[in-house]
Amino acid sequence: MTIVKRFIAGAVCPRCGEMDTLKMYRDEDREYRECVRCDFSDSMAMDGSDQPSEELETRVNRAGKVELEPAQPLNFVPNPGTTKH
Ligand SMILES: [Zn+2]
């Protein structure tokens, strides 16, 4: 499979502080970031399993009982209340 690495426009490296030096790419279940100026690299699970998510756990726990709600896509905003405009 081909892995495409793309620069993230406007992203600032948390290590060296340079802008537009971060590239991102992904494989089947993880998303990676790496800096071309320093050794910084990072990754996170696409399904959010790296981050504590009470919303997700709640949904999973209810999955076997609640049948009224349709399945929600993964890109559904988990916490609309925290979004600032
Ligand atoms: Zn860097």
Please outline the major beta sheet.
4 strands, antiparallel
CATH topology: N-terminal domain of TfIIb
What is the class in the CATH system?
Mainly Beta
Tally of helical runs: 1
Low-confidence stretches: none
Oligomer: single chain
The largest sheet has its strands arranged as 1-2-3-4
Question: Ends: how far apart?
Answer: 38 Å
N-to-C series of helices and strands: EEEEH
What is the CATH architecture assignment?
Single Sheet
Would you count the extended β strands for me?
4
Which features would summarize this protein structure in a list?
globular, N-terminal domain of TfIIb, binds zinc ion, 21% strand, 4 strands, four-stranded antiparallel beta sheet, 85 residues, alpha+beta
Task: Describe this structure as you would to a colleague.
By secondary structure, this protein is α+β, with helices and mostly antiparallel strands. It has one domain: N-terminal domain of TfIIb (Single Sheet), CATH 2.20.25. It is 12% helix and 21% strand. The protein has 1 helix and 4 strands; from the N terminus they run E-E-E-E-H. It has one helix at residues 54-63; strands at 6-7, 22-26, 30-35, 41-45. A 4-stranded antiparallel β-sheet has the order 1-2-3-4, with no helix packed on it. A hairpin with a 5-residue loop joins strand 3 (30-35) and strand 4. The protein is globular and about 45 Å long. The N and C termini lie far apart (38 Å). It binds zinc ion. Zinc ion is lined by residues 13, 15-16, 18, 21, 35, 37-38, 40.
